[in-house]
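Researcher: Good morning. I'm working through a list of sequences from a screen, and I'd like to move beyond sequence-only analysis. For each chain I'm collecting a predicted structure so we can compare shapes side by side. This is the next one on the list. No need for commentary yet; just the structure.
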Amino acid sequence: MSLYGQARSKSAKKEASTSTSTSTSTLAFSTHLASLIAGSRDSEGTSTSSSNAASRGRTRPSRTSKPSDLFARPNRGAQKRAAADEAGDDAHHVRQVHQSSAEIGTIDAATFHRSKRRMEEKARLYEDLKSGLYLAESSDEEPDTRDKEDYLARLRRKEREGLVDFDKKWQDKAQDDENEEGEEEDDDNASIVSYEDELGRTRRGTRAEAAQARALQNANNRDTTQRWKPVQPENLIYGATVQSEAFAPSSAMTHLASRRDRSPTPETEMQMHYDAEAEARARGTGFYAFSRDAATRDKEMAELMQAREETQREREARIARRAERLAVREQRRVKVDELRAKRRADVFLAGL
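Model: Good morning. Structure tokens for this chain:
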């Protein structure tokens, strides 16, 4: 029941129970946290007072038993997973265990050298079988032919009795090398890159084409550098030198004689100082080609001046007529405005 005698609703009861459980859990957490803080302080006090423990005597046991630490307990299955990680993920995993010579024992020097010699002999046999030495034919000219034939016979026997087919192995290796070279060439040709050709244009092509264009460009640059390299002049003068051949009188006299022996300029050419047709110029719309004769040219210029004066007179007359028309138009506009004002005044007076 509530304070005023009314029954509480289910939602209110649910909210009250929820708030009660929340406050209870909060109180339990606060109590546990306070006990942890008190325990840490007790441990610090114990470490600081360890020197005075004998003088004070036996410590009094705590009345309340120390609660168990929730954070000290490991998660469920953590130890089992750690052991499985240490043992190895693979079921067939074999752990390498190193042993000392005291545990496995030692061998004498003779046995060690004999084993070493046999291993070296096996390695040499394997290399000879791998290189195909058992296929070689004997020659009578070579020394120690009998020992070599015995060794070759031994190699052939080993090749027949062995489990490794060296012929097929050599063939597979050669084929793999060819495939790798072909793949490298295909990769070089398949990848598209951008490069600049010898003319400075940006192209797109394979790596091989780019390398070829780069080599060609380097060769052209080298040739250009050699071609444009300045040549050292041969007639340089070093040090204090008297230049006796600085003035060549023979060449100067030849030039003076050529100017002296030149024919005089004709009088017609001297008098003619204007030629409109001979000028190298762009002739536009207003171009006027005067005559070469001086009298005719003066007459043409006078006619041109007269035409210019007539044009100016016509232009001034046209401007005057236009100004007169504008003045008449302005007078008419003023008169029309006066008539309109008078009419509006009459209409206004008639309306009164």
